[in-house]
Structures are given as C-alpha cells and as structure tokens.
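Regression check, (6S)-5,6,7,8-tetrahydrofolate case 650:
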Amino acid sequence: MNPTLSPPIADPGRARVTEADLRAILAERIMVLDGGMGTAIQPLSLTATDFGGEAYLGCNEALNLARPDVIAKVHADYFEAGADMVETNSFGGTPLVLAEYDLVDRTYDLNLAAARVACRVAKACSTPGRPRLVAGSMGPTTRTLSVTGGVTFAAMAEAYYQQTRGLVDGGVDVLLIETCLDTLNAKAAIVGARRYLREAGISVPTMLSCTIEAMGTMLAGQTVEGFHASTEHARPLAVGMNCSTGPEFMTDHIRALSELTWCHVSCYPNAGLPDEEGRYHETPDIFAGRLERFASEGWLNIVGGCCGTHSGHIRALARMVEGKPPRRPRARPRLALAGVDFVQPDDSNRPLIVGERTNVLGSRKFRELVAEGKYEEAAEVGRRQVKGGAQVLDVCLQNADRDELADMDRFLAIVTKKVRVPLMIDTTDPKVVELALGRLQGKGIVNSINLEDGEEKLERICPLLAEFGAAVIVGCIDEDRVQGQAVTARRKLAIARRAYDLLTMKYGIPARDLIFDPLVFPAGTGDRNYVGSAAQTIEGVRQIKEALPDAHTILGISNVSFGLPAAGREVLNSVFLYHCTRAGLDLAIVNSEKLERYATIPDAERRAAEDLIFDRGDDPVGAFAALSRSSTAPSWPAWTRWADCSPPTS
Ligand code: THG
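Current build output:
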C-alpha cells in the first residue's frame, strides 16, 4: 500500500437517483453529459507531486486520492456549463490498467474516491427541480478479448467487478461502460458489474457506449448494430457511441442505432478528428452545430463530448438541446443475431441458412479433422459453409471419445477469426455452453434445450442466456417416456406453448430469443412411426408461428432425408425446405454447399418428393427411391439425438 496516496474523501451522504427518476428526465428532454476529462486536466500542467509521486505520473485515477480538489473543479465546471450528468474520473480504473502503475491494491479506493468526489459536487450543484447526476466511467481497459487476447473472459469480468464495487459503493447513479472497442470486453464488463450489483442487492442502471473507428466498425469488427444485438441482454438504460471521430462520421451509425434500438440513445463524440499532434479542432459552435442535426432528426436522448471537448462545448450543447424534444425509443424489439456481422431474420430474408457441417456428429470429415487436432482445417469447413451461403454456423463438438470442453475452446478461438457470421453452440453440456458464450463477441444461439428431463437443464442453461446474451433453440421434446419427441403437429404446439410460458415467465427470456424446433424425422426409410411426419413438421411450423408470433422456428432440414442416397437427399431436402419456408420457417440448418435450388428440380422428382413428404400414393418411399435411382439399402447415420433413427421395425 502506497502511503503517498491519501484515503478517499468522506461519503457525501447523497441518495442515488433512481432509474425511474432517470427515465422521467429522459422522457422530458435531451440530457447533457459532460466533456473530456483529459482535456480538462492537461492544461493544468500537473506535476508528479499532484499525482501522488513519480510512479503515478500520468495515472489520472490517482488524482482522485492525491488531488480530489482538481477533479472536483472539473466536475463543477461541467455542471456550471449545463451538464446534467458528469462522468467519474475512473476511465482506467480496472485493476488490469492500474497494474501498470502498481496500483492494483488501490482499485477499490480509487474508484470509491472517483465516485465520492463526483457525487459531492453533484449534490452541491443539484436543485430540487434539477438533480445532477453521476455516471461511473468504465473504460475498455488496455486489452481486447477478441483481438489481442492475453486475458480470459473470467479475468476481464473480475476486473470490472472490482471497479464496479468502488463506483457503486461511492454512490454513482449509472454505470457507464464506454469507449467499447471489442464487444466481448463489454460483455465481460456487464457480467462483472451485474455480479457486484446482485451481491450488494443494489440496482443501478447501465449505459453502454461503443467506439466506431473511421473505417466504420469497432476495433474488433462489429458495427453499431452488432454491438447493440450483442449487449441488449444487459437491458441498458441507454446505448450509444463516443470518442473516435467527430460527430460527422457518426451520422450513419447514430441514425442506424436510433432506428434499431428500444433503449435511449447517447452520443458524445470527440471534437472532430485529431490532427498529427493529436489536437482536436472543432470549436464549441461547430461541434454543437453538427450535433444539432442529430437532435433535430430525433435521434438523441443523451448528448455530450469526449476527447478534445471542454466546458465551452458543453455550454454550447446545453443551449442547443434546449426545447428540442428527446427521441422516443422504438417500441418493438426484434430478434437480432451477431457474429462480427449482424443479421436479423425477417420476412425478406427468411429462412436464415445455418451451415450444418461444423458438426462432429453430422460430418465424418469434420470429426476427423478435430480428432487429428487440425483445428485450422476444421474451421475451413465452416468458412466453406459461409461461402456457400450459410448466415449462421452450427458448431457441435460432442464426441464421447474426446474432451468437448477443450475442443470447443480451441475450435472457437480459431473459427471466430475465420468467419463473421453468428455461431450456434450445439451441445447438451451446460459447461460447454458457458465456456462457448464467453468466447463469442456477438450474439449467438444455444442449440438446444428441451423438456426431456423436466426443468433440470433449463435451470442450468437459462441463467447463462441472460448473463451472456444468447438466443436459444427449444426442441419440441418433453418427459413423455413413450414418445418424448413430438411427432404430431398438435403435440409440437402443445410442448412449444408450455416451454414458451415457462421460459418467458419463469426464466424471463424474451420471447423473440426463443427459436422452436418442431423436429424433423427421416421420411424416406419406410419407418412406420414417421410416415407422414414431415407433413406434421410443416404443419407444426405453421401452428407455432401462428400461436406464438413473437418467437421463431428452426429445423434441421437434412434429417428428413437420412438413409437416402445422396442425389435423392438433396432433392428431398430442397422440396421439404420449400414447404417449411412457405409455412413460416425462420431458420434452416442445412448443408449450404449442397442445397439444390428448388426451381431447378425436375417436376417428376419434385412430385415424388412431395408424395413422400405428404404421404400420398401407395408407396411414396419406393417411388421416390426409384426416381432418385436408389440402388443401395438405406445407410444409417450415427445420429440419435434429433431424430430417433432406429432402423425400420417392419
Ligand atoms: N435440430 C437442431 N439441431 C440440429 C438438428 C436438428 N443439429 C444437428 C442436425 N439436426 C442438423 N445437422 C446435420 C448435419 C449433418 C447431417 C444432417 C444434419 C447429415 N450428415 C451425414 C449423414 O449423417 O448421413 C454425414 C455425412 C458425412 O459424414 O459427411 O446428413 O434437427 N436444433
């Protein structure tokens, strides 16, 4: 413990502003945030003594203990200029960053002090009609989980947990996770912050703000839409952008975000792009003039400044927003998925194609590559699925002979660098789910849960969905000992309804994140149990979509053609997919490189496939097999989970 840094100032004894009060203010007007902290400190030419010693020179957080008066003055100036909310001087306040100054053991004190200084000034500047607020600043740290690595998700979450403790105990009204360059860091911040709030039994809203670089994406590659999709599970009070460029370059991104999000929108840019010497040139009038457009378009709820802005900029902003109505958050949230790229299934692009080959149970080749430790080549399998049109990848590494956890860890580290699409984590092991979700920058899908063992699995997996943000596939399977997997449309719908109620009401999962799998069984084997089951699946899709319109549907299309020769499989898959799509299917798991185009299938083959699907004629199995020149007997896949593929009983 270093003696030159004094203890934090006393608790100012100020009550936290509630989320309800914050929302009431945001409903009324555009809120003004402060400007840059660095910009305000720089001209003061502080010395090593001000920082508490040579060792801390340049560590702004040290000033919270060594010179709280300086920080208090910066806050007071911003309030005086018209800011409603100031940010604590804690941008680099995680132990990950403080380690560079050997200040890890002062993490709590430095953040506590940052919050107390700001809260004391906020208290002094508040009037009954105008509360002044404090946002706890949480910067991106000096590492990126998705780009540079060198730190685990758990360690990152722990670092933010430590920072949150100090800020929340110090009394901040909001936690502001800002300047996010890598969404995976932001997700770790969310996990860490929530863990402390849960422990302390306190509710403090979060705001999230990403940084889009001049080339139009975050450092780790996502756009602002991807960032939003990947973090909306935090239910942030506001989401927005800060830093990086001046306001002008943010225009398209802020417009897009404003159209997309159901949260409030914040924007606090730099004072233009910096020149060679790192100086910013937008004057208060130019800066406020550019942001005026955003306010007038109705895109903004919170506005402020970042690097290069000072109290002059904030004064100009406060004048500019006066009397301008705040943005009204968009009403209806929709399912959004993200890898690096962002995608939303809707009626124009349905069904999203999910590549099936990165599955050790479904592809011998992929299984062998993984078994030989050839993860790069295994990831190439995924890249080819994407090139072939896959918009999502199903990743399954469930091999009883191997360590699934280790395989998933290694495979994801590589495949996330090779493909930009959202990933689907195909596993039944909650440990694998947890590890995998901590590896995804974007918003993925867990494949899958069901009611086969009652609620046992749900209890373990649902909290992970809320913690990391992921959609989930719910298979239409229940506890029934005789026929757990639903074959009839009626049972598919009944199970989907039951799961829907349970998952939305008891587990709090948003309906839009539920993707029901009505189940596909082999249609071409002659197994009496599955005669007509393909038609039931199509009808199941239709009924689930109709009864539960907020939720989504998915099918493993290739299951339908198990046991048929290759040429016949592609035809049957394609015709089946066509009918499922007409029924409303949202996502389809297929081999994206081998999807026969429906329109190119000769009439006779298409009719034979339809006869098989809808069980028309005397011997649709035989007729279809004859047409697709089946000579060999059906070969049985090593498949047991999704379709009960026991060989025909008769
Ligand atoms: N629903 C959900 N998830 C699923 C399925 C489902 N995941 C897995 C599966 N079903 C979908 N994926 C595949 C992958 C491969 C095959 C079928 C479905 C396939 N494989 C060849 C076979 O078994 O004949 C193997 C060929 C080879 O080894 O190269 O057909 O229904 N939610």
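Comparison notes: Confidence is low (pLDDT under 50) at residues 630-650. The longest strand covers residues 174-180. No diff flagged against the previous build.
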